[in-house]
User: Which sequence fits this backbone?
């Protein structure tokens, strides 16, 4: 009986840890040490309210060898719904050009609100985690303005050299 209780406690701890880590994508860890950062907020920190209307600045170190274009997916996996809410999609960003505050680079895709633009964080309540994932690609995707996340992911298949991620938190006002 004691052994059964211990096994149950271990199992419940594993389940709890797994659910806490649901927003961590192990594939998003860079294989080459490539990193993304922002002067607007720190990794794991609170995203300032001004970024609910304008996109934050993003910068990265030297992209992996062979990188031709950078792709960005900003989403909120804490949003209700089957899929994470897409806030921002960019494709064909030049590998050496940082993203300036309030501006995008490359070609902009459609967010989950159906618009081809940056859609700032707007959680209905509580705190949500916003993932800014960059992908170094060995080719330009040449997608049209307003492309969807599924189109982006389909075109990226087989062309990702590396990826990196910056996560910020935004709390409903």
Assistant:
């Amino acid at each position: 009986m004691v052994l059964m209780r211990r096994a149950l406690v271990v199992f419940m701890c594993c389940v709890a840890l797994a659910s806490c880590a649901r927003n961590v994508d192990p594939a998003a860890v860079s294989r080459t040490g490539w990193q993304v950062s922002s002067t607007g907020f720190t990794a794991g920190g609170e995203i300032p309210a001004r970024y609910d209307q304008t996109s934050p600045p993003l910068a990265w170190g030297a992209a992996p060898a062979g990188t031709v274009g950078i792709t960005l997916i900003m989403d909120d996996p804490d949003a209700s719904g089957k899929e994470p809410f897409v806030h921002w999609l960019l494709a064909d960003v030049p590998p050496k050009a940082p993203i300036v505050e309030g501006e995008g680079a490359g070609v902009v895709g459609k967010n989950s609100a159906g618009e081809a633009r940056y859609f700032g964080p707007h959680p209905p309540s509580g705190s949500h985690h916003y993932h800014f994932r960059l992908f170094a690609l060995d080719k330009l995707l040449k997608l049209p303005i307003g492309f969807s996340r599924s189109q982006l992911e389909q075109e990226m298949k087989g062309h990702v050299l590396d990826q990196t991620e910056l996560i910020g938190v935004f709390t409903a006002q």
Observations:
- The first strand starts at residue 36 and ends at 37.
